[in-house]
Amino acid sequence: MAVFSIVKLSETNNHHRIDAEFYHPEYLKNKRRLTNLKIPLFSLKQVSNYITNGHTPRYADLTVGEVHFLTAEDVLDFIVNFETSKRITKEDSYKVLRRTILKENDLLITIKGKIGNAAVVYKLEGETNINQDVARIIIKKSIDKKKINPYFIAAFINSKFGRLQVDQIATSQINPFLGLGNLKQIVIPLLDEKFQDKIEGVLKKALELFYYSNIIFSQAENLLLEELELKDFKPKYEKTYTAKLSDALSVHRIDAEYFQPAYEEVIRKIGDMTELKPLGKLANRIKLKIKPEYNKLYRYIEINNVSIDIGEINYTERLGKDLPPNAKIPVKGGELIISKVRPTRGAIGIIPYSLGENLICSSAFSVFNVNSPLKEYLYVTTRSVIGRLQLEKPTKGTSYPTIEDLDVEKLQIPLLPFSTQQKIASLIQKSHEARKKAKELLNVAKKAAEIAIEKNEEEALDYISKSIKKS
Fold first, then answer.
1. Residues near 48 by Cβ (< 8 Å), separated by ≥ 6?
2. What is the pLDDT of residues 418-427, one digit of tens each?
3. Per-position DSSP letters for 82-134, written without gaps between them
4. Are 164 and 17 in contact (CB under 8 A)?
5. Residue whose C-alpha is closest to residue 39's, from 146, 184, 153
6. Tens digits of per-residue pLDDT, 199-227?
7. DSSP 237
8. 338 and 366 in contact (C-beta within 8 Å)?
C-alpha cells in the first residue's frame, strides 16, 4: 500500500528539501510529537559550543603511531571502541588535526556509513583523534539555566526519536551522509536534571562492564600466547624469499604473497611448543544448507553483524523473500563462526543461545559445531596472531580478499593442556556475560529516554529502577 504525505510548498522552502522521503509520514509524526511536548526544545547547535569533524591526513600510515584514530566503525551506540581503532602519529594529530583531539565528555556522532551512532568519550585510552566520518561535539554545561548532560544527549539521539530525525535529514539513500549543517538541526528535549544524571549513571555502569569484558578477553588471549611463548611475537615479513616450483604446483598458487616466510614462522614456533591439529579434525563444520521459506521471518547473521573487537554477534530480521542468495546455513546458537571474507579483520564469534529461533547464517562464514571448553579455546586461538596469520596466507583477491571452507578447516591449532583450555573458556564466558549485561543496561538507558518523552520522567525513573533490580 502506498504511503504519502501532503505538505505545503512553503514548508519545502523552509527545509530546502523537495525529495519525498524527507516528508515521510513517520518523520512528520515524530516532529509533531516533539514539538507538542511540554519540555524545552533546543537544537543540537544551541546546546553545543563546537561541532566539527576530522579528516584523514594525506599520506598517513594508519597502522603506526601513538595516537588512536577513530573511524565510524569504532563509534557504536554509546560505545567508543578503542580496541578496533587505527593509529596515527602525534605529528599528524597535533599539526594536521589539532581541533579534533578528543577530550573526556566530548559527544561523538557518526555522520557517514552507519550514521547517527552517538557516544560520549569516557575514560580516554591515550591521545585520540577522529576521521572525516565522525563528528566531535562539545556540549555546553547549561542553557537558560538548564543543565545539559552529554550522556542524556547520546541516549536521546540513539533513541527512536533521535534516529527518526537522523534518518530524515540524512542525504543519499545508498551511502547515507549526515552533513554538519543538518546535524546541527537535530532537536533535543532537555528533561529534568535529576533524570539526565540518572541516565548518565546507567550508561557509565554499562561502559564499565563493557571495558571489563574487553579486559577479561585480553586476559584469555594473553594466557594462550604466554603458554606458547608468543606474548611479544611479531611476524617478520621478508622482502625477498624463494619457493620451490613443486610447492607452487602442489597448492596451485604462483602468487608470491602465499609463500611469505612469516606465515610458516608462527607454525614452527607453536609446533615446537605443543602438538598441532587441523581445526577440521577438532570441530564439525556444518555443511547443511537450506532454501529460506518465502514468507517466513528469519534472524539473519551476516558479516557486518559480527564485531571485530571480541566477536559480538547481532542479527537483522528479514522475510525469506528479502534474504540475499548466500543466506543458507541454519544455526541454533552455540556455533563457532569464522568469516571467509576479509578473514583477518576478526569477524569470528560464538553465536549466543539468546538470539532465539529461526536463525540463519550467511554462507560467507565457515560454521562449526563444537563443545565447551574447546569452543571458546578455538575462538580465542583463531582470533589471535596464530589464527590471523594462517587466515591471511590463503586469501585470494586484493580489494575483497576471501578464503574457502577448506582453508579454514586446515588451520593448525596448538593443543594446550585441557586445564588451560578450561581457564581460557572460563574467561571468555565471563567476558561474554559482562558484555551481555552491558548491552542490557544500554538498552535500559535508551528505553528510559523514550518513556520519559512518551509518558513522563517519573515512569521512566521507575522503569530504570525495576530494570536494574532484575539485572
1. 107, 137, 138, 139, 140, 184
2. 999 999 999 9
3. GGG-EEE-HHHHHHT-GGG---TT-EEEE-BSSTT-EEE--S--SSEEE-TTE
4. no
5. 146
6. 999 999 999 999 999 999 999 999 999 99
7. -
8. yes
Give which of 315, 402, 320, 318 is closest to 365, Cα–Cα: 402
* Residue in 234, 326, 251 with CA at minimum distance from that of residue 289: 326
* Residue 201 CB neighbour total at 10 angstroms: 14
User: What cell numbers appear for 416 in the block?
Assistant: 594446550
Q: Phi and psi for 458 in degrees, rounded to 5? A: -65, -45
Q: What is the mean pLDDT of the chain?
A: 90
Give the chain's largest Cα–Cα span.
78
Give the separation between CA 58 and CA 275, rounded to whole angstroms: 47
**Distance (Å, rounded) from C-alpha 431 to C-alpha 428?**
5
pTM for the complete prediction?
0.86
Q: Quote the pLDDT of residue 94.
A: 80
Peptide bond into 394 cis (omega under 30): no
Please identify which residue in the block is written with the cell numbers 586461538.
381
Exposure pattern of 158-181 as b/e (b: 16+ CB <10 Å)?
bbebbbbbbbbbbeeeeebebeee
Cα separations (Å) of 8 from 11, 12, 21?
Answer: 5, 7, 15
Q: Output the nine-digit C-alpha cell for 71.
A: 573511524
Q: What is the arithmetic mean of pLDDT over 270-281? A: 94
Q: For residue 359, which of 332, 338, 335 has the smallest C-alpha distance?
A: 332
Please state whether beta strands 316-319 and 348-350 pair in parallel, antiparallel, or not at all (unpaired).
unpaired
pLDDT tier, 14 (very low <50, low <70, confident <90, very high otherwise): low
**CB-CB contact of 369 with 360 (8 Å):** no
How many C-beta atoms surround the C-beta of residue 261 within 10 A? 14
Of the pLDDT bands very low, low, confident and very high (cuts 50, 70, 90), residue 9 is very low
Residue 128 has pLDDT above 70, yes or no: yes
Q: Is the CA virtual torsion 150, 153, 159, 162 positive or negative?
A: negative
Residue identified by cell 560505545 is 79
Three-point CA angle 355, 358, 361, nearest 5°: 80
Q: Is residue 377 within 8 Å of residue 218, measured between CB atoms?
A: no
Q: What's the count of helices (H) and strands (E) in the chain, helices before strands?
A: 15, 21
User: How would you classify the pairing of strands 134-139 and 107-110?
Assistant: antiparallel
Tell me how far apart the alpha carbons of residues 72 and 61 are, in angstroms, rounded to a whole number. 18
